[in-house]
Amino acid sequence: MIVWLNGAFGAGKTTAAYELLDLLPGSTLYDPEVIGAELRWMLPKEHLAQIADFQDLRSWRRLVADTAAALLSEVPGPLITPMTLLRREYRDEMFGAFAARRIPVRHLLLHAEEAVLRERIDSRAAADGGTARAWCLSHLRPYQEALAWIESEAHTIDTTHLGPRHTAERLAEAIGAGEGAVDIVQTPEPTAETVAAGILLFDDRDRVLLVDPTYKPGWEFPGGVVERGEAPSAAGVREVFEELGLRLSGELGLLVADWEAPRPPGFGGMRLLFDGGRLAPGEAAALLLPSAELRDWRFVTEDEAAELLPPVRLERLRCALRARRAGQPLYLEGGVPTGAADPSRLLR
Predict the structure, then answer these.
(1) pTM
(2) Residues 119, 41 contacting (CB under 8 angstroms)
(3) Which of 20, 22, 202, 207 could bridge to 299 as Cys pair (CB 3.0-4.6 Å)?
């Protein structure tokens, strides 16, 4: 198990983590900052110059999950992880990777009033020489902006008037009571190329339905991986029912077949998008969300989708929308149409 202690700099995460080691038998301190330091040593300076924080490194986020799994093969756990985590898409990526490895997560937030945080940061700077003061203070605003989503998921302990030992005792009580358990779908990572089927559903304004998964960054199309022996269109229909409680009937028209090349650590594969047609207002109002898999859905325009979808999915959507208008499916490779007699005609 991972006990993820979130919170701003100065909330008392690290000092409470050391105290918590005494209260949770078998526990081990797991500090992902060590991984960040090693990556800074190994990666080219030119590459590091492009990022502001080691959390922005995809390699760091992957190694956090891989290292946790390796540690838990050596120690009983839990792993106590004091680490500020403010970007929800990074949370989705790493917590989804934990779930894929069957590692449960307890997400706990140590929160303190801003005046107290500033006082603690100043005290730390006086002891350490002040080199990290500006860095810590610069993260107070992003912390306040992220607080809403963190509090919606994590169990919160106010450390404004608590010392490290009392904080650790509160944490141990909360963990023992099952607080902070992250309900997330356990989707095994692929071991080879996959075929995935997505369904585009529209409202009466021709906006497309997107969903927000809890287990990976970015928004997605309803759908999922095709199981062994399953027809892709049937897989899409099955996934839409499992994800949204919506039963689709009739034949689905293929819009896009997109070959996604392997790009380590991903295996790639074929990505299909089908036209699921328009939903009646009553159908949209009745959509259900399984909390372990999806946290939200919304109808969006193409421009709005550009703010939500990762680049490869956005290009796939744009091609699918144009294929839908043209009434002719498109074959893509890496989001780029190929094989059509006149691809530019379809993309106008």
Answers:
(1) 0.86
(2) no
(3) 207
